[in-house]
Specification:
This is Electron transfer flavoprotein subunit alpha. It contains nine helices and 17 strands. The chain is α/β, with parallel strands linked by helices. It has a seven-stranded parallel beta sheet, with helices on both faces. Helix 8 links the parallel strand 16 (about 280-285) and strand 17. Helix 3 (about 75-85) packs across helix 4 and helix 5 (about 215-225) runs parallel beside helix 9 (about 305-315). It is elongated.
Length: about 325
């Protein structure tokens, strides 16, 4: 069976999101005969052009439809299922982001197959590693080879595919019944000049030990000084110190920065699951028994309100 792979493009505000390029890298490890990217938009020319530049991409399918102006999973899933059948794809991959978690199970249901979630390592085209028990264990799963494989990719486990490709762009359409029971109302998103948490090369996070929403300013200021994204533990989010879109961990965002610095975070299993792919982990905590020190490359026992000003001076 040929491994013809279809990747669903993830985009926002007319720009391709890096999770798509990471999914391409994952697909390249499955001995593919072709890697196609599907762009579902109302006017996807710019997004398709960006996808065509990714190395390893064979073809980009641009399917413009007014129903995709504000894409919802309910509207996209029937079109993806139709594309998978029409192109006789063996694999349909999406990112394990908020977008993919909502979308890919619907695609699997439309195709009448089970799905593999959160692929973090590829052994073969149908055998993968994925995390279980809040990331505390890794399991190897094998999917049937006689049916379409629908899967989501753990983006933190793969580098983004480089640019330099020149794939063909094909405009197309699909005969799919798009439901009307789900309708777009509006989009609310946080606006920040800081690097995106899931793609930043450096991330600074704060936990319950920061103490308050006002105290988080010391985290923001230090992050801005070194050009880092800002994250938080679930405890900090639950305490109301920061909004939930900053949460890092199994139930938040899975990240893989080159440098991860955490202040006042004890290191619950769920948080560690979100940072396991980070390059260098630096932990600062007053409790020398904090679990975070077991995984940190560099650990410092001390008061973050004394240490951050010293770090601030060192990088000035």
């Amino acid at each position: 069976m040929s491994n013809k792979i279809l990747i669903i493009a993830d985009y926002l505000n007319g720009e391709l999101i890096q999770s798509t390029a990471r999914a391409v890298t994952c697909a390249q490890q499955m001995s593919p005969t072709a890697i196609d990217v599907l762009v579902l938009c109302d006017d996807g020319a710019n997004i398709a052009a960006q996808a065509a530049k990714l190395e390893g991409v064979t073809k980009v399918l641009q399917a413009d439809n007014d129903a995709n102006k504000h894409p919802t999973a309910a509207a996209l899933a029937p079109q993806i299922a139709a594309a998978a059948k029409a192109g006789e794809y063996s694999h349909v991959l999406g990112p394990n982001t908020t977008f993919g978690k909502d979308l890919m199970p619907r695609v699997a249901a439309k195709l009448g197959v089970a799905m593999v979630t959160d692929i973090m390592a590829v052994h073969s085209a149908h055998e993968f590693d994925r995390p279980i028990y809040a990331g505390n264990a890794i399991i190897t799963v094998k999917a049937p080879e006689d049916q379409t494989l629908v899967a989501s990719v753990r983006c933190a486990s793969y580098p983004a595919a480089a640019e330099g490709g020149n794939a063909e762009i094909e405009t197309t359409s699909f005969d799919a019944e798009i439901p009307s029971h789900t309708r777009f109302v509006n989009l609310e998103q946080a606006k920040s000049d800081r690097p995106d948490l899931q793609t930043a090369g450096k991330v600074i996070s704060g936990g319950r030990g920061v103490g308050s929403e006002e105290n988080f300013k010391i985290i923001y200021d230090f992050a801005d000084k070194i050009g880092a994204g800002v994250g938080a533990s679930r405890a900090a989010v639950d305490a109301g110190f920061v909004p939930n879109d900053m949460q890092v961990g199994q139930t938040g965002k899975i990240i893989s920065p080159e440098l991860y610095m955490c202040f006042g975070i004890s290191g619950a299993i769920q948080h560690l699951a979100g940072i396991k792919d980070a390059g260098t982990i630096v932990a600062i905590n007053k409790d020398e028994e904090a679990p975070i020190f077991e995984v940190a490359d560099i650990g410092l026992v001390g008061d973050l309100f004394e240490i951050i000003p010293e770090l601030d001076k060192a990088v000035s």
